[in-house]
Amino acid sequence: MNETELQKNDNLAVLVGLEAHSLPSEDNATDATLEELAALLETAGGQCAGVVLQKKDSPDPRIFIGEGKTAEVKELVEATGAGMVIFDNALSPSQQRVLTQELGVQVLDRSGLILDIFAQRARTREGRLQVELAQYQYLLPRLTGMWGHLVRQTAAGGKSPIGTRGPGETQLETDRRHIRRKISKLREELEEVRRVRGVQREKREKNEVPVVAIVGYTNAGKSTLLNALTGADIPANNRLFDTLDTTTRSLEISDTCTVLLSDTVGFIRKLPHHLVDAFKATLEELSFADLLLHVIDASNENWQEQAAVVEALIWELGAAQTPRIEVFNKCDVCMGDILPHGEDRISVSARTGEGLDQLLDMIGKRLDMGAHKVTLRLPYDRGSVLDMLYREAKVESVEYGETIEVTAVCTPKVLGQVGEWIWNG
């Protein structure tokens, strides 16, 4: 079978990266980032046909990589039958368009691939709205290439007589207006999601229920940790971006401390800015959390770089001042002799349960709000106090005898309101 007869396989991709002196280090491609790109491709359902990494002083403004490398990539595409080329770096819309023409196959960049994975994974209405918004924002500046084959439309065709030619409108302009309308509508719907979240948050704050948000690099073990701590049954697989939709579960730390534990979407290097913006409705929960658990994969040799990516996004999302505990997960498969430790640091294995009791103690100490378990004896004409306790305390038992005997965990604020009925017998 010769090269021209080789069938193109749309799920087979050649991966390309550029390491340039003029680019910021976080925008460069390296062996490690290309390895991660291959894992992303596998997550999206594709296979890697080959990898090309070029080192160059600066990107080519027209085709990003050099002419020689472009020819090399084209040869590899033809030899393997790959149906697409994926760049580890961000491409401008014009570079993507020119490369698609030069290589004869679809060209994506890392952002486009991540958006595709998010589109596959989003399950809830909110998640789908967020992904759709990000996709449209990504698509808008790239429409020119998609509609290059269309000619200008006029009121009465391309050769209309003088006086009958209206201003006309290209298909491209029609689509741009349509997409802008879609973006506006999606933003309105997400604003409503944000409003509902705000109401729920006010209710939690009124009830003084602390919120603990789990953050971390994708595949660090956040869902496994949530499952281990709360007994939840969230699918936890060894693949990137397994969790897109936020999951919140109640977690009893002690007799006097119950928190809401919230899982979030994983972060990754070069996370598309459109996605960060679109997911702000979900991720803004981080800035309102009382405590962050930053889960770090201790078994990954690049954990420091991954942790730095997460820290940068925490800053971007306005949660830099939120207290946090660094949870070094997968310590059961960690290669180092000394496990990470220190103040607000702990090594655990969410899979085996090692270190989880100590983690709960750390969370409890951080979130100790001075709550106490008390027994109250309420006169029957004070039934409204019981209603208040159900709303603002954690009622454990109610018995009706000569009085209404209530056992409840109360915050200092509630204790101040019910002090006269506390029974010390």
What topology does this entry show?
Blueprint: E1 9-20, H1 31-43, E2 47-56, H2 67-80, E3 82-87, H3 93-103, E4 106-109, H4 110-121, H5 125-139, H6 143-146, H7 171-206, E5 211-216, H8 222-230, E6 247-254, E7 257-263, H9 273-278, H10 280-283, H11 285-288, E8 291-297, H12 303-316, E9 324-329, E10 345-347, H13 356-366, E11 372-378, H14 383-392, E12 394-400, E13 404-410, H15 412-418
Parallel strand pairs: 1-2, 1-3, 3-4, 5-7, 5-8, 8-9, 9-10
Antiparallel strand pairs: 6-7, 11-13, 12-13
Helix pairs in contact: 1-4, 4-5, 5-7
Any overview of this molecule?
By secondary structure, the chain is α/β, with parallel strands linked by helices. Helix content is 40%, strand content 21%. The strands form three sheets. Strands 6-7-5-8-9-10 form a six-stranded mixed β-sheet, with helices on both faces. Strands 2-1-3-4 form a four-stranded parallel β-sheet, with helices on both faces. Strands 11-13-12 form a three-stranded antiparallel β-sheet. It is elongated and about 90 Å long. Mean pLDDT is 82; it is low at 1-5 and 146-168.
